[in-house]
Every structure is written in structure tokens, then in C-alpha cells.
Design a protein that fits this description.
Structural class: alpha/beta
Number of strands: 28
Strand content: 25-35%
CATH superfamily of the largest domain: Tetrapyrrole methylase, C-terminal domain
Shape: globular
Radius of gyration: 30 Å
Helix content: 25-40%
Number of domains: 5
CATH architecture of the largest domain: 2-Layer Sandwich
Oligomer: single chain
CATH class of the largest domain: Alpha Beta
Number of helices: 19
Bound molecules: S-adenosyl-L-homocysteine
Length: 563
């Protein structure tokens, strides 16, 4: 919940706008300002104070504890010009909140934490537990001093400006090492602990066994991602409580699934009890990976039979492939989500001209793999291969990356051992439609006239079908120097089913600096004015030129009802 506090009339007006925009996220604190700030600080995860920073600093000072647990606090000035991230920039999310509040109130977000100001990802914002010399290594990164990345375990980290040699080190490890003086340890969630337990096994026994196993193998409990067991044990109190105390989820698998996993130490007892020859080892290995600790049994000093087993596996890193549409060109048509994914990736793969479009957004340390026109398959393969190595990769395309673009060749290559995140973009047909008016108000199709990968007979059959079905048609890749007869041919097919006066919109370089557009007709369109930077949208039999805008009605019945 975000607590809102104001004192003046102007502040209260701004506060009410925020409260109205985010009814479920905010709570208004009335009354004397000091009491309101103290109450909100105790009860909320975040605060927005419509007060001077000085006043807020004085009120907060005695309340501040730890930057990892304190609420994030944003101050908005009396004039509503600035949203200042005051404390809890990272841990409390105040930096992000300042940006959000800024967008809503049309105020400038003010962020002063160094890592955000310079574009370097903060070591405490990587989503992984971190130990050691965080401040010293962060400062070294910011000052451009050489910092070495020593990744014992590959993990899809955001970009970090690292060097081959240097005195500061970021070590990505699941080993139980102590950080050296100028070293930061990042703990990837790479370990899966498989557990089995007989009915009524005490939590101390289960947890003790797990902690012993990790300690003896030199592994960090901070890297445990999950406990895993068989479905039949999903309610076993000792196991459930052990997962809770470790702060990790308990994942369960069916006995059949576990029975199919090959393990080094199968045995008869679990087969009789739950229907699989292995619980701990099989559950740990169910998602693949390397068995670091084979099955161990709990030791009981009192001579009773052991009640618990465990095994530890290092699971393979899952790389991350974001397929990101950049939109048609203009920066404000690039979505915030696309921007975030571009900054999240440590490897960027794309056509050189698209890379140029967003180069300024990339974080220092991003590895850029750019290539020229025509190298699509190779780009797709490279992106997938990098993700399979455990990297965070962004594969970019103009418009929407799934429309006549990189998403399909990439996903045709990809296996299920990587995560794929699709970020939609404004495709050329939509960008052009908005410029022309409302040409896509009824059923429509896109057809690419490029016969590079598709035989012309197939394209022609589709154009014919669209013509017969009276669909609005947007032609992508309409005409290039070497391909000049396809567009006239396609237009002729449509003209067989539509009046010569049917409106046709031609948009070149939509949303780019040299954007141009014109509205003409099927009979009047001169194909020579069309090139590869252009889309051509042909109306259906109901499309009209109304006040210079191309308008396709929602349907004849709709029109009748309206008139
Ligand atoms: N993925 C892209 C399309 C790639 S195919 C998208 O979703 O928009 C390339 C064709 O798209 C070009 O030949 C042109 O027909 C069209 N195109 C892409 N961007 C355009 C723009 N800004 N203005 C007009 N046409 C564009």
C-alpha cells in the first residue's frame, strides 16, 4: 500500500489525483502531518508526501532503520513539478515510484542514487541475494574502475561493465565461500534439494539433514531455489515447515514422474511406500542438472531409524530470451516494457539499423551483436545460442518482432530449456492506420508481397481470397528495386472486386522523421511512388474518404443503427 500525505490545498489536490488514479494501491492519511507520516511509515510499503523534502527528512530521521526494509519515500513539491525519490530508492522502490508518480502528475522524476543516474544496474537490484563489499564494488563500477565478473555458475544477469582483470570482483557462486575484501558474492537460485521423509518426521531432523548436506558439500543455503519431493509428501509437516523456514517453495512431482528419473541409488523402501524407487534423488534431478550431493539419510543419535533423506542438484541455468518489438520508429511509440527489456539484457542481437535506433537506451556493459540485412537465420541462431548459455538476451525487430520478423525463426530454433518473453510492438499497419484515419475498422489482413521466402502463387492465392472476402488489405514489403511487378498485380486482383474509387492509403516511414502519407484510390495509385519503407492499405467496398481521412465503417448494420 502507498500512504499519501499532504498539508496544503495544492498538495491535497495532487494527492487526490493520485488516490483517484490508484484507488487500490493508495491510502490517504489525514490529520496532523507528523502523525500521518509516522503512521504511514509504520503501515505502508511506500509513501508519497506532498511536502517539502526538508520537512519530510526531519520527520523520517528518527524512524529510519535499514534500507532493505524501510518504505520507499517520494516527495512531490508544492508546484507539482518534481517527484523526488528521497529514501529507499532501490530496496523500497522509491526510484520507480518517482517515475510512476512523475508520469501521472506530469512531474519530473528526480533520482539521485548513482547506479540509476548512470545506467549501471545496482548490485542490490539484480534480484539475487548479495554478500560482501557491495558499496566498494558498486563504487568501482560507477567510477569506471575495472571489475571482474567471475561466474562459476552462469545466470542471466543484467549487463555489468566488467573487465578481464581488476582488483574488484563480482563472483556468481552457489558455494559457501566467504567474500574476499574487494569481492561481492551473488547467489543464484541454482540448487534444488530433493527430500523424502517418513510420516511424522520432525522438522528439526529434515532441516538438520539439509543444512548438514549443504555444509559438507561446501554449498550456500542462500542458493537453494526450492525443495522438491513426491506428491504424496506434499502435506508432510516436517517437509512443509523446512521449506517455510528456508523461505523457498516446495515443489512436488508424481510418483510416476519420479520413477522415470534415472538415479544412482534406487531402493525398495520408497517403492513400497509411495511407488517410486527414489524420492530425494529423483525429485532433485526431475528438472535435470548435476547431482552434487547423492542421497543422504538423517543420523539419529537416539538409535531410532532415520526418517529423512535428501539430495542436492545444481540445475542448469535457464537463459532468458526477450523478443522485443521496437515500434515503427518514434521513441514515444517504443513501449516502457520494451525499454525495460532492452536494459535487462546483457546481450543484444539485431539488425544494425535497429540497434542504432535504441543504442542510447542500453546499459554500459551490454554486449551488442549486430549484423546486416539478410542475416536473419544467423541472428536467430545466435540469440538462441546465447540464451542457452544462460545469458539474458534481447532479440530486436522493428514494429512488432513477431510480424514478418525475428520471433518465428528464433522460436523455431529454441528448445524448452530457456525462458522466452515476448514484448509486443506497434506494427507498421497500426502505425499507418492511425495516420490515415480508421482504415482497419472492420476485418482486415496483412499480406507481405515479398516472394523471397514465399512462392508468388501462394501470395497471389491469398490476395485473391482477401479480394473475394472483401477484407481491408495492408501490403508489407510492397515494392523494391528488384521486385516491381508484384504490387500492380496484387492491386489488379483487388480491383476485380472493388470500385476504382476504393480508397488506398500509402504511408512511408510512419513515425520517423521523414514520414509521409497520402490518400488515393485503386485507380489513381501510382506504384512507382511506393518503396520498401512503405505500407499500402487498400479499403474494402465500404471504406470511404471522409474529410481526407480513410474510414472503414464497423459494418453496414452498425451504420444503419447509428443513422
Ligand atoms: N516487423 C515489422 C515489419 C517488417 S517487414 C513491423 O511489425 O512493422 C518490413 C516492411 O514493414 C517494410 O517493407 C514496410 O512495408 C513495413 N514497415 C516497417 N516499418 C514501417 C514504417 N515505419 N512505415 C511504413 N512501413 C513500415
Amino acid at each position: 500500500m502507498i500512504g499519501l500525505i499532504s498539508a496544503t490545498a495544492a498538495g491535497t489536490a495532487a494527492r487526490d489525483r493520485l488516490a483517484a488514479a490508484w484507488p487500490d494501491r493508495t491510502r490517504v492519511y489525514e490529520g496532523p502531518v507528523g502523525d500521518a507520516v509516522r503512521a504511514a511509515f509504520a503501515e505502508c510499503e511506500q509513501l508519497v508526501c506532498f511536502l517539502a523534502t526538508g520537512a519530510v527528512v526531519r520527520l523520517l530521521a528518527p524512524l529510519l532503520g535499514d534500507k532493505t526494509t524501510d518504505p520507499g519515500v517520494v516527495c512531490v513539491d508544492e508546484g507539482g513539478r518534481f517527484a523526488v525519490s528521497l529514501v529507499g530508492g532501490h530496496g523500497g522502490g522509491a526510484n520507480e515510484l518517482a517515475v510512476e508518480v512523475g508520469e501521472l502528475l506530469d512531474a519530473q522524476p528526480v533520482v539521485t542514487t548513482a547506479t540509476d543516474a548512470t545506467g549501471v544496474a545496482g548490485l542490490d537490484t539484480l534480484g539475487l541475494p548479495v554478500e560482501g563489499a557491495v558499496a566498494a564494488v558498486s563504487r568501482a563500477l560507477l567510477d569506471g574502475e575495472p571489475v571482474v565478473l567471475d561466474a562459476e555458475v552462469s545466470w542471466p544477469l543484467p549487463p555489468l561493465p566488467v573487465a578481464a582483470e581488476g582488483s574488484h570482483v563480482i563472483r556468481v557462486t552457489d558455494r559457501a565461500a566467504q567474500p574476499a575484501e574487494h569481492e561481492v558474492l551473488l547467489r543464484p537460485p541454482s540448487l534444488v534439494v530433493g527430500v523424502g521423509a517418513s510420516k511424522g518426521a520432525p522438522v528439526e531432523e529434515v532441516l538438520g539433514l539439509i543444512e548438514d548436506a549443504l555444509r559438507n558439500a561446501g554449498l550456500s543455503v542462500q542458493s537453494v531455489a526450492e525443495l522438491a519431493t513426491v506428491d504424496a509428501k506434499s502435506d508432510e509437516p516436517g517437509i512443509v515447515e523446512a521449506a517455510r523456514r528456508l523461505g523457498v517453495p516446495l515443489v512436488t512431482h508424481s510418483a510416476e514422474e519420479l520413477a522415470a528419473v534415472e538415479v544412482p541409488h534406487p531402493s525398495a523402501a520408497p517403492l513400497a511406500a509411495v511407488g517410486t524407487p527414489s524420492v530425494a534423488e529423483a525429485a532433485a534431478l526431475a528438472g535435470g542438472g548435476e547431482l552434487l550431493v547423492p542421497k543422504r539419510k538423517s543420523a539419529r543419535a537416539d538409535g531410532h531409524a532415520s526418517m529423512a533423506t535428501c539430495a542436492v542438484v545444481r540445475r542448469p541455468a535457464r537463459g532468458r530470451l526477450a523478443v522485443v518489438g521496437l515500434g515503427p520508429g518514434a521513441r514515444d511509440l517504443l513501449t516502457p516494457r520494451a525499454k525495460a527489456e532492452l536494459r535487462r539484457a546483457s546481450v543484444l542481437v539485431g539488425l544494425d539499423q535497429y540497434v542504432d535506433q535504441i543504442r542510447d537506451l542500453l546499459r554500459p556493459g551490454t554486449r551488442i551483436l549486430e549484423s546486416g540485412l539478410g542475416a536473419e537465420e544467423e541472428r536467430a541462431r545466435t540469440a538462441v545460442a546465447e540464451a542457452r548459455r544462460g545469458q539474458a538476451v534481447a532479440l530486436i525487430g522493428s514494429g512488432d518482432a513477431g510480424v514478418y520478423a525475428m520471433a518465428s525463426p528464433a522460436l523455431a530454433e529454441a528448445s524448452d530449456d530457456i525462458d522466452v518473453i515476448g514484448v509486443p510492438g506497434v506494427t507498421a499497419a497500426l502505425a499507418a492506420g492511425a495516420i490515415l484515419g480508421a482504415p482497419l475498422g472492420h476485418d482486415h489482413v496483412s499480406i507481405s508481397l515479398s516472394d523471397l521466402h514465399t512462392p508468388w502463387e501462394v501470395i497471389e492465392r491469398r490476395v485473391r481470397a482477401a479480394a473475394e472476402a472483401d477484407l481491408v488489405v495492408t501490403f508489407y514489403n510492397p515494392r523494391s528495386r528488384g521486385r516491381d511487378w508484384q504490387l500492380p498485380k496484387a492491386l489488379a486482383i483487388l480491383a476485380g472486386h472493388r470500385e476504382p474509387t476504393t480508397p488506398v492509403g500509402v504511408v512511408r516511414n510512419a513515425s520517423r522523421p521523414d514520414e509521409s502519407s497520402r490518400l488515393t484510390t485503386l485507380a489513381a495509385l501510382d506504384p512507382a511512388t511506393v518503396d520498401m519503407m512503405t505500407v499500402v492499405t487498400v479499403g474494402n467496398t465500404a471504406t470511404r474518404d471522409i474529410a481526407g481521412r480513410m474510414v472503414t465503417p464497423r459494418g453496414y448494420r452498425w451504420q444503419e443503427a447509428a443513422s
